[in-house]
Design goal:
92 residues, five-stranded mixed β-sheet, 2 helices, globular, Acylphosphatase-like_dom_sf, hydrolase, EC 3.6.1.7, Acylphosphatase-like_dom
């Protein structure tokens, strides 16, 4: 199991980015969460099998159809064993 913590910048709020990220993560059977940040970015935590995590990580660079991603910052982190499923959280 591996985990990634990512920040996605660009036109990523108001374009179904969070819901689409959840769908991508659930399709790959990942755990984690996604939320909007006050500065306009989206923050994502993905964890699960490495191949599946990297699949969704790659998707973050384009996002859903209406998104315009300009930057993705990704850090590998230790998995959070308390997570169960994938959630869309309220903004930070």
């Amino acid at each position: 199991m591996m985990a990634l913590h990512a920040f996605v910048d660009g036109r990523v709020q108001g374009v179904w980015f969070r819901q689409s990220t959840r769908e991508q993560a659930e399709n790959q059977r990942l755990q984690g969460w996604v939320r909007n940040l006050a500065d306009g970015r989206v923050e994502v935590w993905l964890q699960g099998e490495a191949v599946a995590v990297h699949h969704v990580e790659t998707w973050l660079y384009s996002g859903p159809e209406l998104a315009v991603v300009t930057e993705v910052i990704v850090e590998e982190v230790s998995p959070d064993l308390s997570l169960n499923g994938f959630e869309v959280l309220d903004g930070a």
